[in-house]
Amino acid sequence: MAAIYKNKVEEGIRMKQHHKVKVIRLLLVAFLFLTACTANDKKTATSSSSSSQTEEQHLLIAAAASLESVMEKQIIPAFEKEHPETTVEGNYDSSGKLQAQIEKGLEADIFFSAATKQMDALVSQKLIDKKSVVPLLQNQLVMIVPSASEVDWRDFSDLKKAEMIAVGDPASVPAGQYAEKGLKALGYWDYVKNHASFGTNVTEVLNWVAEGSAQAGLVYATDAASSDKVKVVAVLPEDTLNEPIIYPVALVEKSQEKAAAEEFLTFLESKEVAKYFEDTGFIMNK
Amino acid sequence: MKLFVDIQKKLRDHPLQVAFEIEATTLGILGASGCGKSMLLKCIAGIETPDSGRIQLGERVLFDQEKGINLPPQKRKVGLLFQQYALFPHLTVYKNLSCVTSDQGLILKLLHMFHLENVRNSYPRQLSGGQKQRVACARMLAFEPELLLLDEPFSALDTALKEELQLELHDHLADFKGNVLIVSHSLDELYRLCPTLAILTESDLIKGNTSDLFKQPQTVEAARLTGCKNIFSVKPLDAHSVQVDGWKIPLSVATEVPKDCRYIGIRAHDLVLDDTAINQLDVEYISSQQTPFEQNAWFNCQETNLWWKGSKQIEAARIKRFSLSPEAIMVLK
Amino acid sequence: MELSPIIISFQTAMLSIVLTFFSGTLIAYFVFRLKNHGLKILFNSLFTLPLVLPPTVFGFFLLDIFGVQQPIGKFLLDFFAVKVVFSWTATVIAAVAVSFPLMYRSAIAAFEQIEPDLFAAAQTLGFSEKKIFFKIALPLALNGLLAGGVLAFARGLGEFGATTMLAGNIAGKTRTLPLAIYSAVAAGDWSLAQNYVTVIVVICLLMLFLTELFSRNARRRQL
């Protein structure tokens, strides 16, 4: 009798395990089925977009990091609204890195640099047609400190009060190059160089100051305006630089979407967009 | 030194409930697989904790759930021999012993006692099964425990070696002054090595003298565990006779038959071929099967299957009648 | 070629591997010996988490702790004049933080492959937990621990995202090899980048070679 009971219990346990296995198998099948379905959906979506290729266009804009906010939040949405058949994608980084990427074959349609150096380099390599270059914007270099800082900051000479200064890497970041030029003219570069943390893009520099890791830093006026965790102490005088800080924009020669890209460039020079730029702290270059 | 064990622990299928007391003896523990024999040893050694109860060795309380006593294994002085020996693979035989005790004299004595002198610098992976078992025993004794627990000590060895080692172990155990518990499912081992036996069934634990228990296992389950092949449900007729359900003739039983007796057991070897006994059973041959040293055969006796074990010299197909002595019938609950 | 990134990276990697190896092994052993399964799962998830986070995100967390505007960072600055951010110490912290989970998981796996009965046997033979660790667990897990150490070392040496967040990119102080390589690439100085890459590869090969030697010895003494 005990044996019969034992058998029944064993059977019950076996059935439970069997049931568990069944449920697991069912879940696996359901999961595979769902992923197959969604994969199919993606396929049909892309196939439909490629079939109507004549209508839909896609632009890739390689732009300096300091342009990201105004481009993504205002300019690109405005353009896409007026040109619904075109999707615009932005790739933001230091101008030096973008230059390197375009040289290595990045399929950008438009290059929007934070300095003329990178643009000129690409022009000299015939990757950009000199005729399409538009010196669109002007920016200013400013000295910033954390908003919460209680130290008495007045001008660039106070950089000597900072133990750590955040600057863009002059080797690759235009903002860094301007900082070097300007500070050399003012006589503070030697100090700054020996107390600097070199950012590989301006956003990194901004964040370092915003977090208080560096006591001071040099960024564009537009960057400073975008964060309330930093405050501007002084503006780099224009005569310390050979030329104003120009943000040129141009068509990339290898672009497959020249028509759409030209439309975008025209759009950038419009009055509507000028307002967006000025709100962010840029100065339109006349 | 007396060992007192009374513990309860919930296992996966059913609860383990064990209570017994032994003094200066080797106790065998027989039970079905999964009934908790190994768990019992682990609880006594301290590497598992029972849900409730008490374990006491001599004057020392090892475990008492109510009083909140639970000695760590390190302090219990209880030796445990693992089924797979658990030798430290990165240490030589000598180091396996010396990491337990610094008493050089004891180590040398143990090496000698277990014939391990010429392998003292070998590693466990270089040893044979029998040698590993001896090292495990020696290491266990190196700690000078007060109680020995052997978990299926011969299950990992081949048959040829087993008997030899069983005899050796018997000699070693004779020297040991404390109690020994041996868990096994081999009837031969338990019969050879343990004068006292505890049969662990799902419902309870039956303890007694080994040979007595084999003669009278007391319960159906115990009878099965001790290898009884023929168990029949019966109706008691009077104090010394029973009637197997479905049989026409009664059986004469030597032990007293209680009024509520429902089963009897007849060992396959107890069916003999002379005409002397009072109980005579007419049978019809069904089939037989040979094993190396004896023969199994099945017969039909009044619509019941009868399992017989006997000499290979006999022609099983020719057997028409068995004789069964009243002493051989086991009265079971 | 500017040599400071090599020296900084070497110092950072050496210190962080020592810290990671010991903390990873000890903490993993502690969790391994826990009897409470719930706690085990909790600790395992906690200590593996940094592995599945992108390093920059992890850098954020570190900044949350050590940033001068955060409670702990501020406390350290005000009371001990210790600023963790933008210091060489930060490179070590970042390296340890990202390499710890690798060491931890390798160590747990190394301990788990030891025959469980050995621990029980040692206990019944009177071994204290300390003795069990040093005489049984450590020697038998050594191979796995060394393998984990190599992984952790490589991860710490190559650490970038969390490092820039916490330690900045200060030439001569916190500019490790990965940061120097990235800066060189950004500046278009491919030959400099290649030189630095060669140095990292050589260091890693050296470590692998040494570890292979060690583990072969350890294996010989084992099963």
UniProtKB/TrEMBL annotation, chain C:
Keyword Membrane (UniProt): yes
Domain ABC transmembrane type-1: 25-219
Sequence intervals crossing the membrane: 6-32, 41-63, 75-98, 132-154, 196-214
Main subcellular location of this protein, as a coarse class: membrane
Keywords, ordered alphabetically: Cell membrane, Membrane, Molybdenum, Transmembrane, Transmembrane helix, Transport
Family: Belongs to the binding-protein-dependent transport system permease family. CysTW subfamily.
Protein name per its UniProtKB record: Molybdenum transport system permease
